Amino acid sequence: MMALIACVISLVIARGLAVIPTLPEYDRNVNIEARKGQPALLKCLVDSSDATVRWVKEPSQIISINMHVMSAARRRMIIQKTLASEWNLLINQVTESDAGYFTCRNGDVIVTKVQLRLLELPTFLDTSDDITADESESIKLWCNATGYPTPIVTWYERTPNPSPADVVSSGVVGRMLSIQSGSYGSEEIYICNASNSIGSVTKEIRVSVKSRPVIQTCNASQVAIRGDNAILQLWCNVTGTPSPILRWYLGNSYQYGKSQQGVHLLGEGNFLQVPVSHNDDAVIVCEATNIHGIDTKEIRITATPPSHSNNVQSGMPPLSHGCQLINSRPADCQDVKRLGCTTSGVYVIYPAGTDGFRVRCDQDTYGGGWTVFQRRLDGSVDFDRKWASYQVGFGDLEGEFWLGNQQIHMISAQGWYELRVDLTDTRGYAWFVMYNVFRVSDAETKYRLFVDGYDGSAGNNLKFNSGNMFSTVDQDNDGVQATDFSSGLKGGWWFGETNESNLNARYNKSSRKERIFWKGVTDNSQSYLVITEMKMRKWVDRRNI
């Protein structure tokens, strides 16, 4: 080899040319890509029997000298040789610190230069927050993402199944989206999707248009008697952006913004309990305000003797039993029964952290003590509703109703609860299902369902829903990207990839896909479910029933 080099040099000198020493060609870097935790093989060929081969992590960290790997790298790196000329560096379980340039050197001469690039799932650096805008306002949304390969950012309007027709803009990282807000009181959802060959991430941005307060419903119901006073529970459902502040006033001559004799501020909030005299008529005013306006609604209370004080003129039915729980605060219907009220009907309960609300108690079925939170009887109540309705509840406790996801959560969070589901079809056939464990999580986690410990005559169908978040037509939380089950199967439910039940679907619908179903019970095309009840109570040892 040395003789060959000497010969070449002699030939060059003989021709009178200058000798310019050159380094090996490595200007075309070898690029290696690997995901975090995966192995990466960096190759190097040195055809010399007396070579001193070093791998260096640029700019100056020595990884190995010949076959010896430095102690700092020894746990994850080895020199791999299958041929005498191979000096390959094998990195096991690549980490973020491995990204960068490596050089393979024979002495001080660079033989190979390798760039190791770490494949990274896209992540968001920063995005627009939710926005409250004026009507028809021009808005710019942004979404900055990083990752390798460089993510592509695509914007969608919120639809159950984004398709090319739904794309409102697409581009590279940092691309802004220019939109115009909608009409008064509307809300639009835009989805920023950042994707590369490794995967994708999404971020929802809500654009709400400012709106005046609107009081949808306002009611009062009696929950107790104290001397000459009836204790009323007041509540209102209100919409508006930003969220309105609710104030309650007692007085027949209320006028907004004016302090008047005989008009008293009772309190603030969506729920309120106040004493009202049995001997006087009263007017209670609910006032909802935000920066865009005000709305008010009156509740008129008619004086009634204490012996008839259940009949509060408030748009709500009286408590449907003769049992009064004076100076008691039962946490659920099991407590109601323990306190001596063994008749099924409507009662007021006080789960931990609440001021109380009305529920229907089933004191007859399998030992009683059941708090009913879902009931279908005749199709008189539409269950095809949006998230807000399912959250606070709807219907009539004497007929069909959904108690409300927030109320269901507050009750089931008090301890170990069990679930019972009763089903009846058009032929009069009846089935039941019981689960030893039942719980519904809070609003932040989208009222996720948990059940376990099945027993019953109908199928164990809720096992497919356990762990799922609650979904409605305007809030798709089923975790299946290509499908919005709430739109297809109707009603709010704990939809997921597999759905073998939906007791909140449309009542008596001709389409089997859209009507109430429980697989194994409703498979017969000649019959369908007409009565359903879902109810919970603290776990009871059934041997004692």
Automatic annotation (TrEMBL):
Cellular compartments annotated: Secreted, Extracellular space, Extracellular matrix
Classification via CDD domains: FReD, Ig
Residues of the signal peptide: 1-18
SUPFAM superfamilies recorded: Fibrinogen C-terminal domain-like, Immunoglobulin
Keywords for this protein: Extracellular matrix, Secreted, Signal
SMART domains, alphabetized: FBG (SM00186), IG (SM00409), IGc2 (SM00408)
InterPro entries reported in the protein's UniProt record: Fibrinogen-like_C, Fibrinogen_a/b/g_C_1, Fibrinogen_a/b/g_C_dom, Fibrinogen_C-term_domain, Ig-like_dom, Ig-like_dom_sf, Ig-like_fold, Ig_I-set
PANTHER family, alphabetized: FIBRINOGEN C-TERMINAL DOMAIN-CONTAINING PROTEIN-RELATED, FIBRINOGEN/TENASCIN/ANGIOPOEITIN
Official protein name in the record: Uncharacterized protein
